[in-house]
Amino acid sequence: MDIGALAAAGVALLVGLLTWTQSRATNRRSDFTAITERLDKELKDERVQRKLLTSFVLDLLRWAQRVEPDTRAGQPPEPPVDLDLTPWRR
């Protein structure tokens, strides 16, 4: 076998290996970016949900302070429309 052909095959192999590792690194970066974007969105949604839930609990506490135990208060107030309580309802 010719030395030149062997050297060309070695260079082609090296270039292919470098391209493959670069492609893997790029894929890892894009995967990392996609995962962090998704986690950021989920964290933002959870913060909004917690804020709504906290405000609802505080509203209930304020309502409970205004109503005496012997007062006929009727039904508790309905939660705000923008608060999603479906996971806790049966």
Pick out its properties.
single chain, 90 residues, mainly alpha, 1 helix, 71% helix
Can you offer a commentary on this structure?
With 90 residues, this protein is mostly helical. 71% of the residues lie in helices and 0% in strands. The protein contains one helix and no strands. It has one helix at residues 3-66. The longest helix has 64 residues, at 3-66. The chain is rod-shaped. 0% of the residues are buried.
Layout of SSEs?
Elements (H helix, E strand, L loop, with lengths): L2 H64 L24
Strand content: under 5%
Outline: rod-shaped
Distance between the termini: 77 Å
Order of helices and strands: H
Radius of gyration: 31 Å
Mean pLDDT metric = 77
Count every beta strand, where a strand is a DSSP E run of 2 or more residues. Answer: 0
* Biggest beta sheet attributes: none
Helix percent band: over 70%
Number of helices: 1
Structural class: mainly alpha
Q: Residue ranges: pLDDT <50 for 5 or more in a row?
A: none
Could you give a quick summary of the protein structure above?
With 90 residues, the protein is mainly alpha-helical. The chain is built from one helix and no strands. The protein is rod-shaped.
